[in-house]
């Protein structure tokens, strides 16, 4: 099931396909079992790039912090 259309937002933001794959990998590690939270965070990262709040390099450089 797809919850959010983050692919369209990524295209609107000019995020290259390879970068979107990496963003998806980052958030899949963070939310391996929760599809909705995974997609929500991918969407929010793409929206932040689109809105000029962060660069794609900043998103990709963000470390994943796992909670206990």
**What is the C-alpha radius of gyration, as a whole number of Å?**
11 Å
Please identify the oligomeric state: single chain
- DSSP strand (E) fraction? under 5%
Compressed to H and E, one letter per element, the order equals HHHH
Residue runs with pLDDT of under 50 for 5 or more positions = none
Total helical segments:
4
Estimate the mean pLDDT confidence: 92
Described by strand count, sense and barrel closure, the largest sheet is:
none
Quantity of strands, as a count: 0
Helix content: 55-70%
Shape field: globular
Supply the helix-strand structural class: mainly alpha
Terminus-to-terminus distance = 27 Å
Please describe what this structure looks like:
- The chain is mostly helical and 68 residues long.
- It has a domain at 23-61.
- Helices cover 65% and strands 0% of the residues.
- It contains 4 helices and no strands.
- The protein has helices at residues 6-13, 17-30, 35-50, 56-61.
- Helix 2 (17-30) packs across helix 3.
- It is globular and about 30 Å long.
Write the layout of secondary structure elements.
Blueprint: H1 6-13, H2 17-30, H3 35-50, H4 56-61
Helix pairs in contact: 1-3, 2-3
Short characterization:
The chain has 68 residues and is mainly α.
Task: Spell out the key features of this protein.
globular; mainly alpha; 68 residues; 0% strand
